[in-house]
């Protein structure tokens, strides 16, 4: 039986990926590093510091830890300028309706996001109340693809892994779910997320019956 659904935030509930991209691009430009939308794909689901490391590596730049902290903080300020403009309705297609359906069917709802800004985003979208449990980037010690974030979510929800389903848009996140032995729905492009148990373009395209058959094949 499906007793809980655990959602990634960025790319599943709301498209903040475009804001991350714009902020990283601005930083990369200042550093004289080329950074494309394709490069950005690698950063999805990855923590802020690891993202910066990937960009610096791409530009073959080595800098001090102190300077790194400063750059990451600057990126986050730019990111927050975009995020702070978000309002209810800016969530991805079908997200709110899907959460409503889960609530109506007494299925618990958790968040498993690598972002340290996850609570802020949910508040701005007025969606915090849907979540019985929130696990975000401030609470984890091991980044995706480690399953820690989703295991912590299931534990806090008091639901077994086999009764939970994870929703992810990033490869690192799908691997995290599978490393924790969760069933996982990929949200996005089947060519990129083919590893997931099923892939849908958005939460508007999945029904409760499909979820149930995923857990009871
Ligand atoms: P922050 P998710 C992730 O969110 C993003 O996909 C990733 O691009 C970002 O670097 C990470 O959060 C950290 O975000 O800088 O806000 O702490 O997909 O795990 O919900
Ligand atoms: Mg994501």
TrEMBL record:
Residue ranges of the TM segments: none
- What is this enzyme's EC? 5.4.2.6
Q: What does the similarity note say?
A: Belongs to the HAD-like hydrolase superfamily. CbbY/CbbZ/Gph/YieH family.
The entry marks the following residues as binding Mg(2+), namely: 8, 10, 168-169
> Does Mitochondrion appear among the keywords?
no
One Gene Ontology BP term is: carbohydrate metabolic process
Q: Which residues form the active site?
A: 8, 10
GO molecular function terms attached to this record: beta-phosphoglucomutase activity; magnesium ion binding
Binding of substrate occurs at: 8-10, 24, 43-48, 51, 75, 113-117, 144
Principal EC category: isomerase
Needed cofactors: Mg(2+)
Quote the cofactor binding remark: Binds 2 magnesium ions per subunit.
What this protein is called in its record is Beta-phosphoglucomutase
Catalytic activity annotation: beta-D-glucose 1-phosphate = beta-D-glucose 6-phosphate
Quick one: which gene encodes this? pgmB
Q: Name the residues annotated as site: Important for catalytic activity and assists the phosphoryl transfer reaction to Asp8 by balancing charge and orienting the reacting groups.
A: 113, 144
Q: What are the record keywords, sorted?
A: Carbohydrate metabolism, Isomerase, Magnesium, Metal-binding, Phosphoprotein
